[in-house]
Design a protein that fits this description.
The chain is mainly alpha-helical. Helix content is 65%, strand content 10%. The chain contains five helices and three strands. It has helices at residues 10-16, 25-44, 46-59, 65-90, 113-129, and strands at residues 93-96, 99-104, 107-109. The chain has a three-stranded antiparallel beta sheet with strand order 1-2-3, with no helix packed on it. Helix 2 (25-44) crosses helix 3 and helix 2 crosses helix 4 (65-90). The protein is elongated. The chain starts with 9 loop residues before the first helix and ends with a helix.
């Protein structure tokens, strides 16, 4: 796993997608991290993935033009779409000390039992991956 070093920052994700800039970064960060671990790492393989993560950790950007080309032209596009795939499940639902609620504008409402099962299965699948 990536030691919490992201290939794509939350700000970069917001700049590259239609996600509104007012969405809290703490709601997006875990989705980027999970998408990197679950999808990008297996595609690149451990050696290449670890090289890119190590270079980003050391310098903030991948070193070497081949790695920059790979990340900028392919990895970032795939990554942003994997994150967009997960956000419809994770964004509307927030966990509070009294339970899970769905945000609807300035209001909150309780999710249905079916939605709770879907949310639970979403995170169970992620947990089983790790």
């Amino acid at each position: 796993m990536s030691l919490n070093v992201l290939i794509m920052s939350v700000d970069m994700f917001k700049d590259r997608t239609s996600i509104h800039s007012n969405i809290d970064a703490k709601l997006i960060y875990p989705e980027i991290k999970a998408a990197e671990d679950m999808y990008i790492h297996p595609i690149l393989g451990s050696a290449l993935y670890n090289k890119i993560i190590t270079d980003i950790n050391a310098s903030g950007t991948p070193l070497g033009s081949d790695y920059v080309t790979l990340v900028n032209n392919y990895v970032l596009d795939a990554l942003q779409n994997y994150v967009l795939m997960a956000l419809p499940v994770s964004l509307p639902f927030q966990f509070w000390n009294k339970g899970v609620v769905r945000k609807t504008g300035s209001e909150t409402e309780l999710p249905t039992m079916s939605e709770l099962v879907d949310i639970s299965n979403f995170y169970k699948q992620r947990a089983e991956f790790y």
